[in-house]
Design a protein that fits this description.
199 residues, seven-stranded antiparallel sheet, alpha+beta, elongated
C-alpha cells in the first residue's frame, strides 16, 4: 500500500519503483507484507514488513519459528531533498535474537553495519548518503523470572539514497541482510530463490 497526495496519481518514477518492489523475489523463508506507509515524510511512500521463518517447526509448536523481522520503507520526493542527494530514500530496520556470547563482542556493531553494506554491494545496488545504527539489547531476568535465560538481540537501522533505475535491488539487498541477521547460510551460487508468499 502506498500513500500519495489526495487526488494525485503516483509519479511515474514511483509507479515504476512500486512495480519493481512488488516483483522482487526473496528466499522462501522470507514473508513480505505490504503495510500502510508513513505519511507526511515524503510525497510518496511504500512500506513492507518482513519475517524470516525457520523451515522447521519446533517440537510442540504449531507455527515455524521467527528468526528475524524488519521493516523497509521507500520514500520518493521528486524535488530531491538536499540531504538525500536523490529522489528516493530507503529507511530500514531489522531485528533478530543472537546467541548470548554475542553480548560482549566489541565488534558486533561494526559487523552488523558491514552486513548491510555487503548486501548492497552483492546486489550491485548503487547508493549515496548511507547512515544508521547497530544496537545490541541484552535482557536479563530477576526475581520470579530469574529462571529465564539471558537474551541478546541485534537491531540494525539503516537508511540510504538509491541511485539505480531498479529499486528492486535495494529491497533484495535488505532481505539478504534479514537472512544474514537471522543466521541463514547464503544461497549457493546458481540457486534461485523462490518467490516469497505474500499474506
Amino acid at each position: 500500500m502506498f500513500t500519495r497526495p489526495t487526488g494525485e496519481e503516483p509519479a511515474e518514477a514511483f509507479s515504476r519503483a512500486l512495480d519493481q518492489l512488488r516483483s522482487t523475489r526473496a528466499r522462501r523463508e522470507v514473508v513480505l507484507t505490504e503495510v500502510p506507509a508513513p505519511q507526511r515524510i515524503a510525497p510518496y511512500a511504500v512500506a513492507l514488513t518482513a519475517d524470516v521463518l525457520s523451515r522447521a517447526v519446533p517440537s510442540g509448536a504449531e507455527e515455524p519459528e521467527e528468526l528475524a523481522s524488519g521493516r523497509f520503507v521507500l520514500l520518493h520526493d521528486p524535488s530531491a531533498p538536499e540531504p538525500w542527494d536523490s529522489t528516493f530514500r530507503a529507511v530500514t530496520f531489522v531485528r533478530a535474537q543472537l546467541e548470548p556470547e554475542f553480548a560482549a563482542d566489541p565488534l558486533l556493531g561494526e559487523v552488523g553495519w558491514s552486513w548491510l553494506l555487503d548486501a548492497l554491494a552483492t546486489r550491485g545496488a548503487s547508493y549515496t548518503q548511507d547512515g544508521g545504527t547497530v544496537t545490541r539489547v541484552v535482557s536479563q531476568s530477576f526475581g520470579a523470572l530469574k529462571q529465564r535465560p539471558d537474551t541478546v538481540e541485534i537491531e540494525v537501522r539503516g537508511s540510504w539514497s538509491p541511485l539505480d533505475d531498479d529499486l528492486g535491488k535495494h529491497l533484495a539487498a535488505w532481505t539478504d541482510l534479514l537472512c544474514t541477521v537471522a543466521g541463514l547460510p547464503p544461497l549457493p551460487e546458481g540457486v534461485a530463490a523462490l518467490p516469497a508468499r505474500r499474506r
